[in-house]
């Protein structure tokens, strides 16, 4: 994203805000944060008033060394699963940080919803299997009892011998 790199290198929070609002509007992430090399907010998708304050979490050092990381940490919004990656200029120097995260409370609600859906599907499947097996055994019984008694008597007689 060349625009973002230029805006971060110019340290232009207003331009970053205008650019990132479009991206944040289409994301389901709990937050998107842009920070500079000194660990200062240049953009925060949830709390724009935090621009100019320090990034929270204490996990920026590896990113400032050029590594992308994924951590679970307590930040300004609470405990979150977040990935951070460096923003580099044309010369390859780290000039900032992008952090995208999901609050663990949001992830827990997604997990609970999936578990409930799986449970409902399993119960419906068991009910369907019960109904199918009941109809199947009923059909077999009807076929057996429809046979003439003579055939059954011969069949039983042949089995006794």
TrEMBL record:
Assigned GO CC terms: plasma membrane
UniProt keyword annotations, A-Z: Cell membrane, Kinase, Membrane, Transferase, Transmembrane, Transmembrane helix
InterPro entries reported in the protein's UniProt record: sCache_3 (IPR033463), Sensor-like_sf (IPR029151)
Enzyme class (EC, first level): transferase
Pfam families tied to this protein: sCache_3_2
Start and end residues of each Single cache domain: 10-107
Major subcellular location class: membrane
Taxonomic superkingdom: Bacteria
Membrane topology (UniProt): Multi-pass membrane protein
Location relative to the cell: Cell membrane
Entry annotated with the keyword Magnesium: no
Enzyme Commission designation: 2.7.13.3
Residues passing through the membrane, by range: 115-136
Protein name: Two-component sensor kinase for citrate
Species, as recorded: Klebsiella pneumoniae
